[in-house]
Design goal:
Layout: E1 4-9, H1 13-25, E2 29-35, H2 38-48, E3 52-56, H3 64-74, E4 80-84, H4 88-97, E5 101-104, H5 109-121, H6 140-151, H7 158-172, H8 180-192, H9 196-212, H10 216-223, H11 236-249
Parallel strand pairs: 1-2, 1-3, 3-4, 4-5
Helix pairs in contact: 2-3, 6-7, 7-8, 7-9, 7-11, 8-9
Length: 253
Amino acid sequence: MRSHSVILLESNTAVLEQLQEAFAAGKDFNVLYAGDDGDEGIKRVLQLKPDLVIVGMFLKGTDGCGVIRAVKKTWFEAKIVATGMSTDSLIERALKEGAIYYLVKPFSIPNVIERLRELMKDKPDEAKDLSVGKRQPVTTEEKISEIFISIGIPPHIKGYGYLREGIKMTIERPYIINSVTKELYPSIAKKFDTTASKVERAIRHAIEVAWNRGRIEAINAIFGARIYLGSEKPTNSEFIALVADKLILENMV
């Protein structure tokens, strides 16, 4: 088995040491550099070009997202795993900048090593969001939010809540997807005290945000097939039906 080169950037000394020890104990990872300074980390990554970069969100100098952005701008093919707290906005930012995995703290070091081994076996274009140590989503809303985070729909836009509600309604009453304009949009609008036309526009905007961020591979990975390519994007009803069907068919609700 070939040893994979790694650069570790982590501000938590204990976590940094544990990861270094775990990598040293095995034969499949070789740490080229480990530190807590983002600016120095960027230089080392671009100089050494490791197989894998692990980036903590809170670093000295340039923070984790800044490191990911700077590295990706110069070396787009870099395989970067982000680590940090389980915060939707932070996870969304890291994935938007170009991280392919997000490891949620606190995590089990053995689990992290196993996930990284799996990552190095994946094809380069199979971007995923693996949240090691993160509590598995339980409610329908959590499951839907998990999908939204992975494909790049940020929680602060109005369409996020409207889309989530539309998917929940479709799961509960699948037939409603055949009457989007007359029944689904008005039902969502009633709950949020707005108009059906505003609901339609906000949902369309939310879907466009994900597509414009180039998360097509993550979207295809979520649904297990190359459903969309390039600039293709689904209509509101297609996207709602797609997510609802996924949750129903996988017995996740």
